[in-house]
């Protein structure tokens, strides 16, 4: 019966797919290709309402096979892609984009550009929301390629100007690239999403032409619009922009403060801490201590000598001045039950000493102040340091012994 | 493309996975298969063809219960009434007849019913109906309705476990690497024993073919081991072991040869679904139970409840499965259910939390997609996580939550319940192994990036040998033993562990796989440094089914092949020895067949009786004529045989005499 026939057809289709998969995962491209040619038959009766239909499967698997098959050429690959574009109208733009990426990976930038322009002019029926978004993406990538040409021209011009003559044709070409790139890049970054590459390029363009207000607006929008996902890079770009513009410390600090709130473990927290430590305002220095303590909570910073030296410097400063010991107490209170095991164990003392003497010096200073002179970490490191006759470790021992009262006060 | 140009090239050293340990003595009892609990009948199959959904064989299971546990089913009433049930074959004598039921007749009726199962013109035997009507309410020790409810619940549970058993999530195999790279002796932690309730710490020497050294440290636990998790903190390994109602933690000092010490055990009221060991602080673990509770468990400070919520986080899902893992911040834990992941701060769990992953639009999930296994990838990058679903693999970065930095559709046939990370050196790709349970699939992925460059897969994913794959290379056995062997080797996988081994310029990867039967198999992959873009497909020939390079004469091949074959031979010998022992569990001490069935019942029919022959003839005739048989009685209606008159021993009383005469039709 037809029902049975359908059932058997589906079964053999599934079996075929699993053979292909098997071959793919064992890198047997030839075998996979042979099975795929059989699988193409399933297109004939595509009744499936599954999430991924046969035509999409053929596209994805076929791409994969052609990418790896020893006897395939770029020409064949392009031919296959063209066929896939006509196979499913809904997928046209997706296939185009994927094709372009492959071309770019092979260094065929001009062909990629042509493909993108072609896709831009493609129209089919009424545009759906998804198609609209994909179209924006296509345009954005075309804009990115324009930006690429623009920066190439720019470099040529810069070289020429060094040599002392200017080239009007090149300059004009460059400007036209700029216009094309700017228009399409501007469009995509209006849609909520993560557009790091596009934003960076767009801002670079604007800055080159001196449109700093627009650049600032774009970056602010990208960082602060609540419709966009909370993206730490957005704040990093804003901070870097402000720094380039030579903005005041205050605005730099406020940009980094937000980054600190989102990602306390960010690399820029070292800069942030140094900036805050230098500040004359008490509140800022207080924030600085909080920032460096928070960064060192994270496993990624555990063995970072720079971060530890930041903390050691600030703690030392506070101890010497004997003002604001309560800051340390406050920070230490939420950490004293786990920092000793996390940072200041005897095992770590041994290992830090062996691997990085200056890290162990900074850590020993902090440990000595926070946990007293009897703490395992401090004892081991200062003992080893004195044994090795290193002057700075002897000084360290003296310093901690002199200020042992601090430990009693904060604990 | 989603891929970077090239990944590292790993090639399997052998044609199949090789057993690492000898099979344990004693027969393994396979867990129930679909045919054990499904209703089997041609009629049912037809009915089911249209509809999806399985029919559970409820009646058979209830019957098994009565036979296996007669004491629990009807102990006291059975003892009270045993005089009133007669199990013999002969006719009952007069005075006993009024108060005794002849069970043989009932059994015959039941058999007849069984034989006619599926017949559309099925009539219940009235005697059976009468019997069940009479004693349904009082015969059973446990009220029948209650018992049936419990059994039904259990059957449903078993069935859903068969479809997808999430109690194994995480896997019950852990590898404790050697402390310093120099000594090639690591330790494998795995469960074993008939009920998988023994925990073994086995020293393993990493050679060309890894081998066990010495006898393992062994602990007997009070439940089946579901998960073994391990992490190294400050040079010591902490091993967490989860069974349904107990979780325990062991400490293993780094020096080789030092004995593992049990530290603490906790008991839970509801089965635990997750146990992970902190990679940051010694003696810290996280535990989740199926009631939706997440605990931070510290050996020193005890348990701290972080969350209690029987509901799922982002949308409603019925699964009680929960998972939790550690993050880059030692006080922040991730907790997961089927709908997504959240991170919460142990210092203020109610206030400080953020969503890390949500099944939905941000991650481009499919309909019906659910979280299967989350894992912290801290050893590769401090802020990365792996989340697997039944369709895809995601890599997430906690600094940019909700938007996956990498997504790949893995196309595995069963959801990946096990994952293992082998971090690469800076700038190199990280290796991730994914393993499924039921289908034993093993997949090797490579990815790189995260800090300086974007995250992407490196090279193509690769399939590794499964335990069952070695079957085609083994010599053919006797049919029944072949069946046993197949059953054993294709048992669902229960764990996964791996290690990288660097020996000068040679780099290799050792992958260990544990099956539910307690077998540990291992395979070596060798790293190929220089690579032509597409090497001639030599591997296509060697791995084609049918050929078995494993057992070919090792004349031209390096010693590895011979050693592998030897290992196999030894394993097979031990396996067949273990199977030859009489399976004791099939004997039942309390039931003797002799009393329930007469010798005649047990004898096969010698040949068709005359009545049967006659019936057969009539059937043939009816079929020839295309007619139908209305009555089964022989054509010439014989008067029903008269009950045999009892010859009274002594002188009959007058009433009896009259009745006897009346019976004989003599008025």
Automatic annotation (TrEMBL), chain A:
Pfam families: TAF1_subA. It comes from the Eukaryota. InterPro entries: SL1/TIF-IB_Component, TAF1A. One of its GO terms (biological process) is transcription by RNA polymerase I. One of its GO terms (cellular component) is RNA polymerase I transcription regulator complex. This is TAF1A polymerase. It comes from Myiagra hebetior. The lineage of its organism: Eukaryota, Metazoa, Chordata, Craniata, Vertebrata.
UniProtKB/TrEMBL annotation, chain B:
Residues 483-667 form the TAF1C helical bundle domain. Residues 239-378 form the TAF1C beta-propeller domain. Pfam families: TAF1C_beta-prop, TAF1C_HB. The lineage of its organism: Eukaryota, Metazoa, Chordata, Craniata, Vertebrata. GO terms for molecular function: RNA polymerase I core promoter sequence-specific DNA binding. GO terms for cellular component: fibrillar center. Residues 527-559 are annotated as: Disordered. This is TAF1C polymerase.
């Amino acid at each position: 019966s037809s029902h049975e026939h359908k059932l058997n057809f589906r079964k053999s289709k599934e079996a075929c797919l699993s053979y292909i998969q098997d071959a793919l995962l064992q890198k047997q491209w030839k075998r996979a290709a042979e099975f795929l040619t059989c699988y193409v038959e399933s297109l004939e009766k595509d009744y499936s309402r599954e999430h991924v239909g046969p035509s999409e499967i053929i596209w994805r698997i076929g791409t994969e096979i052609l990418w790896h098959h020893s006897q395939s050429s770029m020409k064949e690959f392009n031919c296959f892609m063209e066929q896939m574009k006509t196979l499913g109208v809904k997928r046209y733009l997706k296939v185009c984009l994927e094709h372009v990426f492959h071309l770019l990976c092979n260094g065929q930038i001009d062909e990629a550009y042509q493909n993108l322009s072609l896709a831009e002019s493609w129209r089919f029926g009424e545009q759906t929301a998804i198609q609209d978004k994909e179209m924006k993406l296509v345009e954005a990538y075309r804009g990115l390629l324009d930006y690429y040409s623009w920066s190439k021209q720019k470099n040529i011009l810069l070289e020429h100007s060094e040599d002392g003559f200017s080239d009007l044709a090149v300059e004009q070409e460059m400007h036209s690239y700029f216009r094309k790139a700017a228009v399409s890049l501007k469009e995509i970054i209006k849609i909520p999403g993560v557009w790091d590459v596009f934003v960076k390029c767009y801002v670079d363009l604007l800055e080159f032409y001196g449109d700093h207000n627009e650049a600032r607006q774009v970056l602010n929008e990208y960082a602060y619009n609540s419709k966009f996902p909370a993206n730490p890079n957005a704040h990093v770009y804003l901070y870097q922009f402000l720094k380039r513009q030579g903005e005041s410390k205050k605005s730099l600090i406020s940009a980094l403060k937000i980054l600190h709130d989102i990602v306390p473990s960010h690399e820029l927290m070292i800069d942030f801490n140094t900036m805050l430590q230098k500040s004359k305002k008490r509140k800022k220095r207080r924030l600085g201590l909080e920032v460096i303590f928070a960064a060192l909570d994270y496993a990624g910073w555990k063995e970072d000598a720079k971060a530890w030296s930041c903390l050691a410097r600030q703690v030392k400063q506070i101890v010497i001045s004997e003002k604001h010991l309560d800051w340390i107490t406050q920070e230490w209170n939420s950490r004293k039950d786990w920092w000793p095991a996390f940072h200041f164990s005897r095992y770590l003392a041994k290992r830090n000493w062996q691997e990085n003497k200056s890290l162990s010096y900074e850590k020993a200073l902090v440990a000595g102040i926070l946990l007293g002179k009897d703490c395992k970490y401090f004892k081991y490191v200062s003992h080893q340091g004195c044994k090795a006759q290193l002057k700075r470790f002897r000084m360290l021992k003296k310093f901690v012994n002199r200020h042992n009262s601090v430990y009693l006060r904060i604990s | 493309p989603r891929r970077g140009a090239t990944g590292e090239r790993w090639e399997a050293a052998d044609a199949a996975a090789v057993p690492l340990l000898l099979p344990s003595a004693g027969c393994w009892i396979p867990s129930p298969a679909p045919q054990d609990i499904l209703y089997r009948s041609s009629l049912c199959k037809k009915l089911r063809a249209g509809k999806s959904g399985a029919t559970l064989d409820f009646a058979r299971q209830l019957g098994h219960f009565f036979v296996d546990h007669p004491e629990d089913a009807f102990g006291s009433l059975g003892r009270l009434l045993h005089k009133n049930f007669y199990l013999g074959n002969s006719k009952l004598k007069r005075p006993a007849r009024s108060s005794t039921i002849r069970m043989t007749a009932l059994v015959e009726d039941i058999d007849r019913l069984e034989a006619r199962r599926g017949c559309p013109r099925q009539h219940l035997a009235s005697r059976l109906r009468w019997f069940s009507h009479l004693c349904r309410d009082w015969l059973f020790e446990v009220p029948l309705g209650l018992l049936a409810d419990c059994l039904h619940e259990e059957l449903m549970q078993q069935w859903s476990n068969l479809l997808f058993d999430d109690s194994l999530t995480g896997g019950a195999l852990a590898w404790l690497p050697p402390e310093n790279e120099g000594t090639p002796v690591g330790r494998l932690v795995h469960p074993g024993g008939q009920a998988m309730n023994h925990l073994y710490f086995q020293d393993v020497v990493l050679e060309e073919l890894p081998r066990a050294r010495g006898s393992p440290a062994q602990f007997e636990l009070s439940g089946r081991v579901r998960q073994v998790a391990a992490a190294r903190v400050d040079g010591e390994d902490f091993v967490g072991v989860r069974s349904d109602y107990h979780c325990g933690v062991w400490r293993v000092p780094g020096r080789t040869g030092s004995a593992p010490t049990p530290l603490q055990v906790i008991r839970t009221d509801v089965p635990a679904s997750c146990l992970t060991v902190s990679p940051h602080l010694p003696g810290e673990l996280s535990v989740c139970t199926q009631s939706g509770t997440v605990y931070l468990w510290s050996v020193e400070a005890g348990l701290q409840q972080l969350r209690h919520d029987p509901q799922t986080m982002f949308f409603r899902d019925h699964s009680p499965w929960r998972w939790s893992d550690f993050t880059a911040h030692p006080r922040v834990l991730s907790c997961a259910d089927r709908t997504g992941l959240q991170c919460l701060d142990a210092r203020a769990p109610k206030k400080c939390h953020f969503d890390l992953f949500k099944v939905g639009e941000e991650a481009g999930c499919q309909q019906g997609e659910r979280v299967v296994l989350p894992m912290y990838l801290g050893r590769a990058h401090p802020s990365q996580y792996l989340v697997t679903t039944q369709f895809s693999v995601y890599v997430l970065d906690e600094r940019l939550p909700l938007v996956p930095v990498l997504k790949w559709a893995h196309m595995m046939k069963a959801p990946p319940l096990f994952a293992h990370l082998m971090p690469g050196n800076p700038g190199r790709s990280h290796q991730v192994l994914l393993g499924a349970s039921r289908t034993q699939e093993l997949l090797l992925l490579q990815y790189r990036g995260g800090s300086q460059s974007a995250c992407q897969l490196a090279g193509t994913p690769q399939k590794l040998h499964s335990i069952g794959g070695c079957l085609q290379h083994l010599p053919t056995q006797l049919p029944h033993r072949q069946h046993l062997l197949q059953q054993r080797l294709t048992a669902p996988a229960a764990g996964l562990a791996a290690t990288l081994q660097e020996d000068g310029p040679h780099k290799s990867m050792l992958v260990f796989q544990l099956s539910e039967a307690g077998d540990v198999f291992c395979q070596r992959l060798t790293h190929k440094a220089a690579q032509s873009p597409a090497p001639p497909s030599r591997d296509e020939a060697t791995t084609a089914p049918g050929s078995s390079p494993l057992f070919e004469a090792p004349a031209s091949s390096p010693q590895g092949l011979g050693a592998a074959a030897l290992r196999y031979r030894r394993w097979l010998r031990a396996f067949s020895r273990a199977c030859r022992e009489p399976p004791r569990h099939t004997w039942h001490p309390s039931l003797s067949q002799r009393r329930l069935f007469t010798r005649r019942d047990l004898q096969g029919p010698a040949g068709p009786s005359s009545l049967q022959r006659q019936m057969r003839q009539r059937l043939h005739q009816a079929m020839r004529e295309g007619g139908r048989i209305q009555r089964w009685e022989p054509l010439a209606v014989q008067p029903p045989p008269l009950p045999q008159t009892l010859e009274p021993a002594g002188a009959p009383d007058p009433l009896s005499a009259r009745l006897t005469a009346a019976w004989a039709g003599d008025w």
